[in-house]
Design a protein that fits this description.
single chain; 84 residues; alpha+beta; disordered C terminus; five-stranded antiparallel β-sheet; globular
């Protein structure tokens, strides 16, 4: 994923893939979604980005998937500690 900000036009472009854009859908007058032929998201354009998307503030969180076994282990451990 790439995020580009064009300060001269106050436009943010969020690119999710390098696939060819087949269709652009207007969500509202400031937000556009680019889709490939099967309908997968390729990019999103945000006009007036500072106002629409609270730019220049950006944060990124990568959340790891937790396996069900580790969740069960955690649940059992907490039951043991709370029983004491």
């Amino acid at each position: 994923m790439r995020i580009k900000y064009f300060s001269d036009t106050d436009t943010a472009l969020v690119e999710f893939s390098d696939f060819k854009v087949a269709e652009t859908k207007e969500i509202n007058e400031n937000i556009y979604l680019d889709l490939d032929t099967p309908g997968n998201l390729v990019a999103m354009t945000i006009e007036h980005a500072r106002k629409q998307a609270s730019l220049p503030y950006l944060s990124y969180d990568h959340i790891e998937r937790t396996s069900p076994k580790s969740l069960q282990r955690t649940a059992r451990s907490s039951r043991r500690t709370s029983a004491r």
